[in-house]
Write a structure and sequence with these properties.
heterodimer; A: alpha+beta; SH3 type barrels; 6-stranded antiparallel β-sheet; globular; B: alpha/beta; Rossmann fold; 4 domains; two-stranded antiparallel ribbon; 9 strands; elongated; disordered N terminus
Chain lengths: 80, 722
Amino acid sequence: MNGATCSLSALRIGERGRVLPGSPEHPAFQRLLAMGLLPGTSVQVVQVAPLGDPVEIEFNGMRLGLRKADAASVEVERAD
Amino acid sequence: MAKTPPVSASVLRVALVGNPNTGKTTLFNRLTGARQKIGNYPGVTVEKKSGAWECGGRRVELVDLPGAYSLAASSPDERVAFDFLTGHLAGEPAPDAVICVVDASNLVRNLFLASQVADLGLPLVVVLNMSDAAEKSGIRVDAHLLSRRLGVPVIRTVATKGEGIDALEKAVNRAVDERVCMAQVPWPEAVNRAVAYVRDGLEKEGVRRLADGELRRVLFDRQSAVLDRAGVPAGFESAPLLSASRDILTAAGFQSLSAEALLRYEHIGHLTAGAIDFPEKRRRSWTERIDTVLTHRVWGLVIFVAMMFVVFQSIYSWAGPFMGWIEEAVAFVQGQVAPFLAPWPVLQSLVVDGVIGGVGGVVVFLPQILVLFFFISLLEDTGYMARGAFLMDKVFGWCGLNGKSFVPMLSSYACAIPGILATRTIEDPRARLTTILVSPLMSCSARLPVYVLMIGAFIEPSYGSAAAGFSLFAMHFVGLVVAVPVAWALNRFLLGTRPQPFLLEMPPYRVPRLRDILWRMWERAREFLLRAGTIIVAMAIIIWALVYFPRPESVREKVEAAAAFETPDVLEKRVAAAYIEQSYLARAGRFVQPVFAPSGFDWKITVGVLASFPAREVIIATLGTIYGIGSEVDEESGDLRKILAADRWGEGPRAGQHVFSVPVALAIMVFFALCLQCGATVAVMAKESNWGWAVFAFLYMTFLAWGGAVLTYQVGARFLGS
């Protein structure tokens, strides 16, 4: 449970994290909140696009593509 | 905007809302019987569509709102949905009830939107759609329990099979009669205080009284559209009022920008507790397995490019035989009709060359349009479009577009008009404007006739069918290759980039239904034929007239005097040629031709180019009329390709040489690839942005087209010979 804190964009394929409250000023985080990516949610990076960006994440059974710049707005606690 | 018939008091207005990919559009089709585009790409429904629905004996006007995740109105789609629900759209009173379609597999997220709709005080019915698919993956929803908790009817449907429609009709009637509203979020005291603060502040400024639901939007959203709609007096600064009201939230321990999501989801969590059953052990779904290949960094890209290649190769090869049959049929009809009209040469020429030739020259490309739409529908309905957008985002992103530009741009390959309409799913207004401005550069199906004609007449005979297929493929990339730097320049010098979030839902893969695909192919075919039947035929007749007139006897007399010893057959052709060369259109073409001389165009090609500005398909009909007019109607005269290949310069420095060569054919194709020769597209661009941008697009594309054609011809002539 005491995983290191990093941004969602720093996770590699297959890695998981738990969303931290972070700062919701970023418009991307606002939209993600509306889609249910609340603090405490478990999120996994499942794929990275050919040129390294965007990344595909999965949470609550849904899959979403988002750019690394937007993923950086979400702070996570690394989990295994 | 769809036209809505005037609503009489006896007709109910019901809005259909829901997240993208919930099968909302399929349900709409089921209920109204009017079909529309169904796709898997998030937000394929970009237009407001309405239809008549006979709902349990009542007449209902059902309005299909764009798919949205939230009413925060951060994209044009969400804004339309919000404005409609609050009655802020001009001429659109707020609906009597709302049907919120939720995907049973994603219930909690979907209820977020339902809860926001409920906040506006509208009677609501929740439709639990695709519950069969959810059950297959082990997710069970107790609709009865959920209905009791939410306080509104929850109806289980499978829209594709028409299950649950009767129950839905009853529920909607009940919701309207009893004004059934969903359980409200128990807002904490701090939220109520902040709302009251905003209300008082606005009232002092004389703003009309807003409902609490609307005031909460003002409070929670970063930039709410509500204040614009409410008629805030000029010079009123809303920022101090908003920041003071948000301080109330902060003081109570809420982050003002995440408060709504946390409170709503907490509430939804209570409402759904015990009503949803998740499988104990989640199996690896098909979508996951397929995605490991299709969005793979290497294989995904390889498959994407291969798929696009197959699509365009198929258009060329599958449609071939059908085109041949249509050509033969047109020639046959011309041959049958001509003798009946022989006593009236002007009428004969009008009907045989102008009308039948004009229609035939356009209808012949129908098979290709059908093949292309088969593939586009297939890609959308399976869910692959979203994967394409994911793979392409980085490619498009650096020049100010984004992965969502991929769908409008790929749709523009069929026709820029639906493509430009599809840009409404792009949240970032700059990326959206840029996509609108470059979409017409994509090679639409109306350009296909030009490519097929030129490739068939000049590339295929010289270089074989493999080269023909390749050049068709390459022509479809010319616009794309040009679009990227154009988009970059637009963003860099005109718009200035400002990144916006890019979120792309990857819907589960679905097996497409042939019926939906065929329906869309038919819709497109009908649209194309109607265009061919109206604007293009009208153009064909005008062009025919400009070629046929003036017709002074002196021209004939002069030719007959000079070539009296020729056979009557040859004489007729000489006369016809002489008439064309002094026609009104030829005069205009000669006048403009010097502008096009560096691209190798003679006056006839110039005439074709000029005539095609309202609609580019017209080039075929025009060339057909110019070359076919006055000639006898037989099987050979239907074959424009042979006539073009045989044509030679009659005058000037290149007299005697072939007019058409490979470089000229390439230059013509490049010109058509880059030019905005479509009145309808210009009109749609003006509607989606403004006339300034539409005119700008027309001018920049015309300039690009001319430059591209000159470059192609000059380089081509150097390497391939003129």
